[in-house]
Amino acid sequence: MMRYFRWLIGYLVFISSCVFAQVNPEWPKVQSDSYNQTLNLLLSGSVPYINVADLKEGISNYTILDTRAKSEFDISHIPGAIFVGPDLILENLAKVAKDKPIVVYCSVGYRSEKFGEQLIENGYSNVSNLYGGIFEWVNEDNELSKLSGEGAKVIHTYNSAWGRFITNPNCTQVN
Fold first, then answer.
1. How far is 108 from 132, CA to CA, in rounded Å?
2. Beta-carbon contacts of residue 168 (< 8 Å; ≥ 6 apart)
3. What is the pLDDT of residue 150?
4. Contact, 153 vs 171, CB < 8 A?
5. pTM for this entry
6. Is-catalytic flag, 18?
7. 134 with 65: CB under 8 angstroms?
8. Could you give the domains of the chain?
9. 55, 84, 106, 166: the active-site residue
10. Averaged in consecutive runs of 10 residues, what is the pLDDT profile of the chain (175 residues)?
11. What distance separates the 2 farthest-apart alpha carbons in the chain?
12. In a 10 Å sphere around its CB, with 0-12 CB exposed, 13-18 middle and 19+ buried, how is residue 61 labelled?
């Protein structure tokens, strides 16, 4: 009971801090103000950002790396994305050129930011983090792929608390 109480207090502090969070004016924006505030609390800006519109416009120019868990990737992912998981294993990236444009993403951008930092530390020179992650990709009503084909309108929300940032009513959430 005490453990649950501590978790609840921590969660309430986090949520209340979102109300007072300053949105970095130099960062991209997502559609939801509360989502922007949460992203500004979570992310450090250590990896350059790319917004959804720019990725969509030039998608064929990027190597797109999905840094979520395999179970999340299997539900749906950005078309053309390569599953790499949250842990950097350099052998798995042997075919990815260090100077080619890479976009990393996860649900909201936190795990992909950590992955992107490691890529940069290992000599990858053109790495961007998708601002708002796959959640913003689907919020802007972009197509998703799934292992069995195109057109998935289902997204793994990591857990129900994060699912509140999915605002697209045409998308089914699972966690």
1. 5
2. 138, 139, 140, 141
3. 61
4. yes
5. 0.84
6. no
7. no
8. 46-174 (3.40.250.10)
9. 106
10. 53 50 76 91 96 96 97 94 95 92 97 98 97 97 82 83 93 90
11. 51
12. exposed
